Every structure is written in structure tokens, then in C-alpha cells.
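User: Is it possible to get a 3D structure for a protein together with its bound compound? The compound here is fe (iii) ion. I've pasted both below.
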Amino acid sequence: MTLNLFDEPAPAYLQPMAIAPGAAILRGYALPVADALMQGVEAVLAAAPLRHLVTPGGQTMSVAMSNCGALGWVSDRRGYRYLAVDPLSNQPWPPMPNEFLALATRAAAEAGFADFMPNACLINRYEPGARMGLHQDRDEGGKEENFSAPIVSVSLGLPAEFLFGGLQRKDKTTRWLLLHGDVVVWGGPSRLAFHGVAPMKAGEHAVLGARRINLTFRWAGLDD
Ligand code: MD3
Ligand code: FE
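Assistant: Yes, that's possible. Here is the predicted structure of the complex:
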């Protein structure tokens, strides 16, 4: 007897699981393209190296960051903002690799955002001990405060304990383990939810070693 794959139901990850209104997790969705994504990451980082940004309050972030696409997120003593040029090189950020854009738009469509067109991809690199405090992502909205576009996140490498809260800092958080290949789409009422990442545990991922890479795809407007 031959297994007819065409009669199989769609794999579970093609049914996005809602974790909150507007937020859907697609477990393992990026696994088939994880190696291609990592090739893109290494190419971007060769042109725009990871760096530990300083917050407006003067703290050096434990997560190292870079960007690709038309706009990149930066932080320094003057504030948080999106820039078209990498301040380290005074050159445009590297273009978004085609596989990045293809995965992000396909995942957004699975979650109900058919015409997501990201113009920014933030690359976060976590080593053991790195963390990200509870925050909202508000810098994309521009002057118009337009948050209609979702954010798509892709996790690669070591697992992370992700904290997901509500629209106010004091709201209680739920914890989600994000694994290599997981994709999450954050839109609608979840777009401005507080969230963070607990300190990373030590570990060794078979492909990435002792690190986690998180890609977040965004549509960002400019303030001017
Ligand atoms: C929920 N990054 O870069 S990705 C960030 O794992 C950031 O590196 C985390 O928070 C990381 O800003 C979390 C998941 C994520 C990203 C954006 C969100 C969740 C979100 C925006 C709104 C709500
Ligand atoms: Fe965030």
C-alpha cells in the first residue's frame, strides 16, 4: 500500500494557532528554509556587523543587533528611531534577502495579513544571559501612529522564553517557548502588546551553536 501524500491533511503548522487576538504562532514554519535564512543572516552581518546598542538611558543592550531592508532600527542616547543608513558605515542597510521577504509575506498571509510588505528587518542575536526587558514596539508607526501592519518574528537557534503581556506594562504576562523555526505574527489588537525575552539559558544548538537569532519583519514609516 502506498501512502498518498495528497490525501493527508495540511500539517498542523499551516493552521496558525492563536495565542491572543491578532497573534498567531506557526510552529516550525521556517524549518524548511532555516538554512537559507542563516545564509542570508551571515551575508547581511558581513556588511552590517552586529553591535550592542545603547539605550537613551545609557544602558548597553545585552542583545546584539543589525538590520537589513530599506530601514533599520537603532538606539542611542538621542532615542530610538528608524534610519535608512547604517550609522557604523554611513551606507544603506544591506537589502533584505529574497528568502526573508518570501517567508515573511507567506507567514503573514497564513495569519490573515494578505498584503504585508515589510521594509525593515531587525536581526537580534542572543547569547546565553542576554535578555530583552518588557517593551512595546512603537517606533514603526511614524507621525501618523499607523500600526495597521503586523510584525512577523522568526526564531532560529537556542530556545527562548518569550513573555507576552497586554496593552499596559502592569498587565500579567504569559510565557511561550520559542524554538528554532517558529514564526509568530503579531497584528491587530496584539500589535502594541508589551513583550520581552527572559535571560537566555546556556545551551548549544546543533546548527547555530550557543546563540539565538531572531528576525523581526516590520513595516516602518518615517517621522520626517
Ligand atoms: C509582540 N524581539 O525585536 S520577537 C523586538 O525574540 C523583540 O528577539 C523579541 O521584541 C526577540 O522588538 C521578540 C516577538 C515579537 C516581536 C514584536 C512584537 C513579539 C511582539 C510586537 C508586538 C507584540
Ligand atoms: Fe519587541
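The CA atoms of residues 52 and 64 lie 5 Å apart. The two ends are 64 Å apart (CA to CA).
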